[in-house]
Specification:
By secondary structure, this protein is α+β, with helices and mostly antiparallel strands. The protein has 1 helix and 7 strands. Helix content is 20%, strand content 36%.
């Protein structure tokens, strides 16, 4: 009966390195920074919301702390916000409005003073 081989140090180092990389990958996806790489099936359905007369469509990722929003004012202006792990901010130019999207899908807006 042959003797059992003990794993070498190199094998152990590779195993530890693979475990660390896997943990970092899971953390990046779960916290949001890598949410754009997740499969389409992990995103919830689009929900509609109106914010300061702007039409918004928002969806939230079920695996990660992330949300996306498409905000439109008719055909005149359109912006996209992606809150992957932290709040996303955007400002429109035609009708100056500042929007904030949180990773949990909450969209808020505030009208900016006209500069004319």
């Amino acid at each position: 009966m042959p003797a059992l081989r003990r794993p070498s140090r190199v094998t152990a180092i590779y195993l530890i390195l693979a475990t660390v990389l896997l943990a970092v990958g899971v953390f990046a996806v779960r916290q949001g920074p890598a949410a754009g790489l997740l499969p389409e099936a992990t995103w919830g359905g689009w929900r509609s919301q109106e914010v300061l007369h702007w039409s918004a469509h928002i969806r939230v990722n079920v695996w990660a702390h992330a949300a996306e929003a498409e905000i439109r004012m008719g055909k005149a202006e359109w912006i996209t916000l992606k809150a992957y792990g932290e709040d996303a901010h955007g400002t429109t130019s035609m009708y100056p409005t500042a929007f904030t999207l949180t990773p949990d899908g909450k969209l808020t807006g505030r009208k900016l003073a006209d500069t004319d």
